[in-house]
Amino acid sequence: MSNLRAMTPARATADAIALGVLLVLGVMPLLAHADDVPMATGLSLSDCIGTALQSNPRIDISGQSVVSAQSSLRKIRSTYSPKLTLSAAEGLQGRGAVQTGDDSNHLEQADATLRWTFWDSSRQDSTGQSRARLEAAEYSRDDAIRALVEQVATNYYSVLAAQELLGVADLGVEYATQNLAQVRRRIEVGDAAAVEIHSAEDDLAQAQLDLIDARSSIRTALAQLRNSMGVSMATDLTLSGEAGEWNADIPPLQTAFADAVRARPDILSAEAGIRAQQYALSAAGAAGKPVYSLGGQASKPFDGWDAGKEDWSVSAQVSWALLDGGASAADRQSAEASLASARATLLQMYNEVVLELENGLVELQRTGERVAAAEKSHEAARAQLGAAQARYQNGLAILLEVTQARRSFTSAGATRVRARYEYSVALVALHSAMGTLPVPGASTSDEESTYD
Questions:
Q1: Residues 408 and 418 in one domain
Q2: pTM for the full predicted model
Q3: Under a CB-based contact definition with an 8 Å cutoff, are residues 10 and 138 in contact?
């Protein structure tokens, strides 16, 4: 892991993500402002991510870092271009060097000067460093997009899970209400003691408490989704998705790590940062060596607003700082330390990625197994509830068996819902850790396999 591999250009990844965003824009209404986003129809996960990419200020913040890096590179590259300077002066002087008319103290002067440094031995390192910093900024923006996509997907599935849990709680209230009605009928005909009404009412109250919590959970989940999408908290969100398949292939750790090293933008940004530090070290090492340059200039003076003679020059120069009080050595030492720190940071990132992938693989396997177990538990709880209700109706069971079966069925239903959506969230997290989490529009097939 200590050997750094060759990098693909940062622009390729940035262009791919930009293309994905443009494709999303092509199928979605134009968004003038986050508060104006029409959310009346059911939104898919891709719709929510597309809105977040346009509305969440996190993308704008990371984009400004790219703009700043682009400006720095453009400034460095400007030294390769000729520079034309125009200057003019008018005033008084005491030397009488310029005679214009009757006023020997009157100064009137203008100059036009063209300078061009054709080549400078110290310029290449500065350009390479700025280019590497731009790549790092672009990859950092891509990483912000990756993190935002993961956050929106997680919040989206949380809303869907909360909505299904509301249905489970509603069903629990329905069963508890039926049990209470049945107890009342049995009390009326003398088949049950009057005291049993309290147990039935308590069971209904517990079911209603679950319903209250489920409604609150939906509001909280929707608020988190709106926040990650960057839309107004007053925006009405209606979702149309559901939990996806839960039997995705689990890659081995070595394959997942290879994908992460190749695709994760935070790792690519760190590698670009190392290249920038390498250029900085090269520039610091060159500070104690001769610096060669080739350039020229041409000027046209206008003394007293009358054109004078042109002059021009082309020269090769060499400069060498022989004594600088140790400044060059200090710069080299600082650059070496920065490079060593950048390399150590990358190795630490590798270790953290391995840990993140291991946790992600374990979580995906755990949640997948829980889905299968929760399905069986839910079916068993349904059968037990039906049997308990039948036995109680025929006088073969006590009410406690019915209420316990009802609560077990509600709990199993909630566990079943959570297990399916926890698996979807775990799958998103694993793809994010591998750097393969798709941006909507960039790859339809990958998007469907991950999100649907």
A1: yes
A2: 0.76
A3: yes
